[in-house]
Amino acid sequence: MRVLVVEDDVKMASLLRRGLLEEGLSADVARTGDDALWMAEATEYDAIVLDVMLPGLDGFEVCRRLRESGRWSPVLMLTARDAVEDRVAGLDAGADDYLTKPFSFAELLARLRALARRPALERPTVLEAGDLRLDPATRQAWRGETEIELSAKEFALLETFMRRPGAVLSRYQLLEHCWDYGYENRSNVVDVYVRYLREKIDRPFGRSSLETVRGVGYRFKGDA
Fold this sequence. Notes:
The protein is of the alpha/beta class. It is 40% helix and 22% strand.
């Protein structure tokens, strides 16, 4: 098992590398985000231990760029901050697991082994409907060559529609897929976000891909 450790703290990087070597693993060290990207491009790693706080490119950006470039080695992110927002940002960037400092080396090793046991990751398929494209890996959307900025909830809603082209989805189904249980009796929030989507993916381009099915919900018609 070959591991890339991305850590700018020299002492921490040395401790991690030595511990991995003592466990019979191969370990390389990168101390900047740019070095990490270069090394991950040159070598296929079984796992990457990636610190969030790096000089230059931070860990979130490094992870995002790895995924954009088609590098799908499992990523275990390290952070000194235990904020939920940080964990969400890391997972949204494409990380597979998260470990908060300080941590025990035994736990880090166990998490790396668990990641290595998972089936090899493949890049999620880009969803397409005519000239509308949605990339679940990079969280980007385009109409033709025009990139469309979507909020996290708008993206989730559009992805749900594009994975079920032609199907009539009720407001309840959409709430189940894109919102938590606190919204179960607020079907009007779906109408609001469908309107937001139409303003972004349809109206500026003279399209009408989202159809209202009266009394039921909505249908994604695709290239219309």
